Amino acid sequence: MFFTLLRLQFLKSFRSTSFAKSALATGFMIFIALLLLSYVFFAGLFLGRIIELIAEGRDPIEFLNAGLIFFFLFEFMYRYFIQKLPVVELESLLHLPIGKRRIIQMLMLRSFISPLNVIALLLFLPFGAQVIAEKVGTLGFISWLGTLLLFSWSIHWFMLWFKQRFEDTWIGLAVVMGTLLLGGGSTYMGWFNVGEILEPIFALAMNTVIPVLVMLVVCIGIYLLAVNYYVKNAYLEDLSEEEDIRFVNQSVGFFSRFGVAGELANLEWKLIIRHKKSRTYLMLSAFFLLYGLFFYTNPQYQSEEGLSPIFIFVGVFITGIFMIQYGQQFLSWNSGNFDFFLSRKTGVESLVRGKYLLFMSISMVCFLASVPYVYFGIDILLIHLATFLFNVGIMVHVIIYFALWKPKPMDLNKGAMFNYEGVGAAQFLVIIPLMGGPYLIYLPFSLLISDYAGLLALGITGLIGLIAFKPLSQLNINRVLSNRYEISSSFRQEL
Question: Is 474 within 8 Å of 401 (Cβ atoms)?
């Protein structure tokens, strides 16, 4: 049955009208996956030497066993953002005379055939064969490696259940952020060492098979948990995204004060909440508000005299993260209904102004959410204030200007990870002004006068941009209007 389903999937792909395009994209992704896996394997070959350099004087096996928890925390994070759910084929399978549980089991097993599930093997097999097998023997090495692999595969099955149950919800985001903070953050801040949790388990695995048997039971148990959940909810209306309609359709009253542009900003907000890809950007914006913790607490970036220049980029990133991510595909979000705005007298102009209003409002929320960074000093708050003003006064126009260069259509219901719909050369070129723009204003005043003069110049430049908002925004509005038919034609093309 498993091979029958694979055959059906192959025939479906082969008969698709976009087979050539899909085959090219698939071939490219396979090449990238093999390239990355080769890097992982070579890292595994030199893992022993790397540990000797990092932990000079310590036993490499004990050091690795204590550090495995960080590998699993990292694995939890990248699986959450990259690992795909196996429910996409249910629409074409549930009507077949095949037992529902069998279909789910086949989809589950097919999901296991993934490059993600061989990373642990490629990374730790060479070290185990070179170091652990020599010290404790072949049986101890097999038991240790088996425990490690079963732990990794348990995360795979758990993620299939977790993402289907909590993906795109605030609970899921809270769990991921909590895992990051309690896992890596606790050790980094010196609260407690989470590595001590798993170290005894893997040390025991080298002397007995009990840990590998326990992990086998855990892995099977989590697999059954995921299978039973999918079987219980294996109905198209249940496996589709469940929304709280009252929340999705709730308007932001503040926007109603800005006329038609405000109403369209409200519609844009509802679009963000309703669709998978845009909602992912919103959640990532909340997640990246923690970006400053990696810089403001790191002695490497501290400056004994004045402010560290890298903090300017951190401030731009924190206060403008949503605008930077979401704004790079400015009109692509509306590719499905752009003709509607085109058919209205002031539709395009109101759409653009509504997006401006939304970007600036969410940037304000990001700035307010970053105020607690004042704990690291009043200078950090001043940096965030200056960069916020520069973002909403200047950078928003720059980002939109680049985003309007040959915008491409996109499917809003697809995830954001490894999805390049709507992405073009402009989305890469915008990195240049994002990185260099603030420093063009800040550095001359900082070097000639003082760091605070640089922040003042940055903030004043942003205020001038806010005062001149109408003519600056009109430049991008006119650009959309002059290219509206070309943009509309590109949006009608098949994805």
Answer: no
Residue 371's SS3 state is: helix
Contact 123, 38 (CB under 8 A): no
Amino acid at 142: I
Asked if 175 and 112 count as a contact pair (C-beta separation under 8 A), the reply is no
Cα maximum dimension of the chain = 79
The per-residue DSSP string of 33-81 comes to: HHHHHHHHHHHHHTHHHHHHHHTTTS-HHHHHHHHHHHHHHHHHHHHHH
- Rounded CA gap, 391 and 395, in Å? 5
Alpha-carbon radius of gyration of the chain: 26
Distance between CA atoms of residues 136 and 199, nearest Å: 16
The count of other CB atoms within 10 Å of the CB of residue 128 is 24
Burial class (CB in 10 A: 0-12, 13-18, 19+), 31: exposed
Rounded to whole angstroms, the Cα distance separating 404 from 178 reads: 37
Hey, what are 82's tokens?
């990259």
In the chain, domain spans: 36-239, 245-491
Q: What is the pLDDT of residue 18?
A: 47
In 3-state terms the chain splits into helix, strand, coil percentages (rounded to 5) of: 80, 0, 20
pLDDT at position 217 is 94
Long-range contacts of 338-344 (CB under 8 A, 24+ apart): 338/487, 338/488, 338/491, 339/488, 339/491, 339/492, 342/484, 342/488
Six-digit token string for 446: 């900082």
Rounded Cα gap, residues 6 and 474, in angstroms: 53
User: How far is it, in rounded angstroms, from Cα 10 to Cα 103?
Assistant: 17
3-state SS track over 237-254:
HHHCCCCCHHHHCCCCHH
* pLDDT confidence of residue 88: 52
Task: Write down how long the chain is.
Answer: 495
* Spatial distance between the Cα atoms of 484 and 491, rounded to a whole number of angstroms: 11
* Cα–Cα distance, 6 to 318 (Å, whole number): 45
Average pLDDT across each block of 10 residues of the chain; the chain has 495 residues. List them in order: 63 54 63 82 86 81 85 83 66 66 80 86 90 88 92 91 73 68 60 70 89 93 90 61 44 66 77 74 75 75 71 86 79 72 74 82 86 84 90 86 74 56 61 82 87 89 89 84 76 58
Instruction: Calculate the dihedral angle through the C-alpha atoms of 322, 327, 328, 330, rounding to the nearest 10 degrees.
Output: 150
